Amino acid sequence: MKSKRKNDYSKLKNKIFLKMILVIFATVATVILLRFAIQKYFSFGDTIADFLMNIFHIPDRTAIMITHFLFIYNIEAITLIVILIFLVILLKFSISWFTKYFDEVSDGMDKLAEEYDEEITLSPELAFMENKLNQIKNNLQKQKKAALEAEQRKNDLVVYLAHDIKTPLTSVIGYLSLLDEAPDMPLKQKAKYVGITLEKAYRLEQLINEFFEITRFNLQAIVLDKEKINLLLMLQQMADEFYPMLTPQEKQVSVNVPDGLTLWGDADKLARVFNNILKNAVAYSYENSVIDISAVQQDKNIVITFTNQGNPIPQGKLDSIFEKFYRLDTARSTSTGGAGLGLAIAQEIVTAHDGIISVESNRESTTFTIKLPS
């Protein structure tokens, strides 16, 4: 692997400086030499006159007059013209040397646009630009890969959700058909079928909402409407709302937040963040366990934690848990399966509040931590 070269302009500046010094010295030396050579050569008027007489058969006096009027008397102008012509040629070569760097950078940009697979290589003095281009290329490749993976996950989820919608829909149609075909069905049996139908209808509604969630995620910009939030009151109300989900498995939520702790933020959107995290904690916690929600003031920040006891999140998946359409439960169980957007949306909202969200998981517990400016 090629060693990393110095990422600054020093090599290019030094080389340009040396080239400029060389061009200046070459120009001065050339001017002196040309002036000396031209004036020395044209000092031999007889030689020029003889040349005119022998080649063009011009009379002596006429040849001498032509020599004096055209050459001897205009020696300074002739010298200047010759020097200027040489300087133009020298300048052209100098500019060509400088512009080769622009050509290299342009070629590197073309390779970047063409998604060139190999590493972009420039001259040693353009190492700083080479590093920048390769860094951009690597970032673009990572973004493209992430976008393709997210798109593939989204497509898979759409297929999964479409398949999952069919199951409750079939049940709804089946039980409604039974109720329609047997109007004199016993009340107890009818109540049982109505309850199952309602349960499947709620599941169907949930899956349809997830379809809308997938579409809205990329189209909806996050606009914050900040206000003063009573954090204890918000989290207690949220815990109460989850009571129907907690009771069947005898789970509990413990809210440990100091009275009077306030937060400046968008109440609706932060409620969505806390809801998504708590929903995740409820889905993946053990039966008969307690989910702890705590909040403390740390300097100018408020730190909120959601801790649950459950199977640990594999370390290899912790970095991906906040990605769009990422789901831990690859089996897509109906009890925990979602669109894989809850935590991704939570991160977007927390980031919009200039906050940070993170997760830690071990054999004992999983903790989501949210740090927000107070």
Automatic annotation (TrEMBL):
Topology with respect to the bilayer: Multi-pass membrane protein
CDD domains named in the record: HisKA (cd00082)
GO CC aspect terms: plasma membrane
Chain ranges of the Histidine kinase domain: 160-374
Highest taxon above the source species: Bacteria
Catalytic activity: ATP + protein L-histidine = ADP + protein N-phospho-L-histidine
A matching Pfam family: HisKA
Keywords: ATP-binding, Cell membrane, Coiled coil, Kinase, Membrane, Nucleotide-binding, Phosphoprotein, Transferase, Transmembrane, Transmembrane helix, Two-component regulatory system
Residue ranges of the TM segments: 21-42, 62-91
Cell compartment(s), UniProt: Cell membrane
Enzyme Commission number(s): 2.7.13.3
InterPro entries xrefs: HATPase_C_sf, HATPase_dom, His_kinase_dom, HisK_dim/P_dom, HisK_dim/P_sf, HssS/ArlS-like, Sig_transdc_His_kin-like_C, VanS-like
Gene Ontology molecular functions: ATP binding; phosphorelay sensor kinase activity
Gene3D superfamilies listed in its UniProt record: 1.10.287.130, Histidine kinase-like ATPase, C-terminal domain (3.30.565.10)
Coiled coil: 126-153
Class of enzymatic activity (EC top level): transferase
Major place of residence: membrane
Record PANTHER family: SENSOR HISTIDINE KINASE CPXA
Protein name: histidine kinase
Originating organism: Anaerobacterium chartisolvens
